[in-house]
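Below is our example:
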Amino acid sequence: MASVFFPSLADAEVVEVELLKLDGNFRSLRLMVDSGFTGTNSLVLPDSAVDLVRAALPATHTSGALQGLKDRGWVICRIAGLSFQTTLIAIITDTTSLSLPPQVDGLVGLTFLRQFASWGGQRTANGWQFSLSD
């Protein structure tokens, strides 16, 4: 089982994902872990990620940290260091209302996390880190 580790922020756990652009290149995004974000959508991405959408899906009504009708689409996501690449449903929206930490682009939810054999935070000699294992 392979594992990857991401340094935790002072107030959040984050993962780095690579999303396939339509031109075949990948864009790396840092996303905050939100295990309370549930449902069929795996990611919340900023409006600037619209170029990552492979196919649009019907908009959906959201409640919680995001509210209202939100655009969605299929995106291809991979994690460097793991044999993980899959197509996921992402909400594409204005993320400024989420009050994300600096340099954090969006969210990963429980639907995303459940695709891994294990995930979670752990304390190390250098502070906290978040891990994903396949």
About this structure: The beta strands are 3-7, 14-20, 26-33, 43-46, 55-62, 68-79, 84-93, 106-108, 118-124, 127-133.
